[in-house]
Amino acid sequence: MDSVLDGGFAEPVMQSQTAFRAIMDALANPGTIRDLVTSKPIGGLSAELASVMLILADHDTSIWLDDALRGDAAVLEFLSFHTGAPVVRAPGAAVFAGASSASQLPAFAQFNLGTQEYPDRSTTIVLAVPALSGGETLITRGPGIKGHGHINPVGLPKDFVVQWADNRELFPRGIDLLLAADGQVMGLPRSTRISEGH
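Given the sequence above, the corresponding structure tokens read:
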């Protein structure tokens, strides 16, 4: 139980506000990397995933976890104790989703994509990746991006560009994506167009 109690922020008010601003800023400026105040890793839950869940989840927000995380008692105890958020098995029932790797992540279309009336009810996916740079270059365009930008995270789903194009076609519906690694976060909102670099 000690690890569950210790897993939160050391300075909850200040650190949670700082991390919240980092997440919002990352989504407002797609493809930029922001420092994220992190808690400790909890079982299979990386420090970054734990931090984002602490910030975004509460007893009114259902969470989907990949099989590895959902099968980890320490992770479930941590989320229950610190957030009270219900953990759901169906991706389509989740407000937030946490995945420890792309191989553990279902297709984006399986999550809640929102409705035309309530597009904000779609799932925000938080994906732990090995690194936010060093991978193949992708080009980003859209709101919050001057001209075009470049991103090169490591560990995206193999068919990421195709899945993302399908997701973008649903706008204003569609999932939003947060990538997390090395104490940092990158936001990719549904409004962002992403194509392969040349």
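The beta strands are 33-35, 63-65, 87-88, 96-99, 124-128, 138-141, 149-151, 176-181, 184-188, 193-196. Try to locate this feature in the token string yourself.
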